[in-house]
Specification:
Blueprint (H helix, E strand, L loop, with lengths): L1 H23 L11 E3 L5 E4 L4 E3 L3 E4 L3 E2 L5 E6 L2 E7 L4 E3 L5 E8 L11 E8 L24
Parallel strand pairs: 2-10
Antiparallel strand pairs: 1-4, 3-8, 4-5, 6-7, 6-9, 9-10
Amino acid sequence: MKTFVTRIVPVILVLTMLFGLTACTPQQPTPAEKPQLTVSQSPLRCELGQSVTLPSATATDSTDGDISDSITVQVFKDNDEKFSGKGNVTNTFTPDSVGAYVARYRAVNSADVYSDTKEINITVEQREPLPEPKSPVICKHQRRARHNA
């Protein structure tokens, strides 16, 4: 009986501790539990002074269904936020300088679980100035008289 107690009791204690630890550890959502976000991730290009049209996005969740109204979009340049809005509608913004921008989309469900972030790269270029028009040069051609001999 003494052998039974010395062998079984430690096993029971270990199992109890393991069960107790897993019962208290918060579970991280699996990828299947995260909201699924869909947005075109094609890079965008524009010239300085032109507005950029950002694509709208959709999001679904296995529990909440369509959660597209929870999508946010933010546009950054050098970690400085230039625009923010709802990502389930078409947004436009006008960049204030040339360079690389990034639009970031995210959705959140009712359990405060966020989707993966989707990014769209935006390149803003300076329009090449048109060459200065040159004044026309008017040449006056004189005809030489032919001498017939």
